[in-house]
Design brief:
Structural class: alpha+beta
Number of strands: 5
Number of helices: 5
CATH architecture of one domain: 2-Layer Sandwich
């Protein structure tokens, strides 16, 4: 047979739980009036009118970098589509007319609805062809097809004032 030790007996005042209710209400009232008095230190951002400053390294929408001769920097090595955990990158390679470049992508699609914005594709790219530094995070559309970014969308998806050409040495 087991003996259960219930601890010490609660007093009548502790059993009605009134002191704890009063303590909780006092904390709520204290925070309410402190926030009411110090309105200039509020944490809420009025979103469409005010926007947060994005941190350095924020992973936004993708973009494809170009060479100075207006060709896509991507060599269709498939590193980005291989490492992608969401399997959202589709690349079809073709031979390049430029003999210095072995191949290039004929099709380069990114399904943004499947993308988890992890940035592994950017890290895996050996030729600095794909970046996620556009700063664009407001992406909305009416159809699912608008969320499949093709080569045309990815090569024109550059932030304001930033060159579409990569300054890498590759």
């Amino acid at each position: 047979m087991y003996v259960i030790d219930r601890g010490q007996k609660l007093t009548w005042w502790e059993r009605i739980y009134l002191p704890e209710i009063i303590r909780g209400l006092s904390i709520t009232a204290r925070h309410f009036f402190k926030n009411l008095i110090h309105m200039n230190r509020r944490m809420t951002v009025e979103y469409p009118e005010q926007k947060h400053k994005l941190p350095v390294g924020y992973r936004a929408e993708h973009r494809l970098m170009m060479r100075p001769d207006n060709q896509i920097r991507c060599t269709a090595c498939m590193c980005c589509s291989t490492i992608c955990p969401a399997d959202c990158i589709e690349i079809v390679a073709e031979e390049s007319p430029d003999k210095a470049i072995e191949k290039r992508p004929a099709v380069f699609n990114i399904n943004i609805l499947r993308c988890v914005f992890c940035g592994l594709c950017v890290e895996a790219c050996p030729c600095d062809a794909i970046r996620m530094d556009t700063g664009k995070y407001e992406n909305s559309a009416y159809t699912r097809e608008d969320f499949i970014y093709d080569i045309e969308k990815l090569t024109t998806n550059h932030p304001e004032g930033v060159s579409p050409y990569s300054i890498a040495i590759y």
